[in-house]
Amino acid sequence: MERETMKFRDEEGNVVELEAVARVYVEEQEYLILAPLDENSEDEFVFRVDKDSEGKEELNAVEDDVEFLKVKKEYKNLLYGEVE
C-alpha cells in the first residue's frame, strides 16, 4: 500500500514531510490527520479539508480547541472503538 505524503514549510521555512494516517469525518466535515515521517516523533496534526472556489482540496490547520477536540475524539473512536 502506497503512503500518502505531503510537504509543508514550518515556521522557520524548513520543509517537513508528513504522512496521512487517517481521514476523519465530524458533522459531515472531512479532516486529515498527518504525522511526521520521522518514526521517533509522536506528533500528529489535524487539518480540515476545505474546497476552494474551483472545487480543489485545500488543507487548513485546525487551531480552534473545540474543533480539535471533536476531531481527536472521533479519531480515537476510529482507532479504539471508544465512545465517550
From TrEMBL:
Superkingdom classification of source: Bacteria
InterPro entries: UPF0473
Pfam families tied to this protein: DUF1292 (PF06949)
UniProt name for this protein: Uncharacterized protein
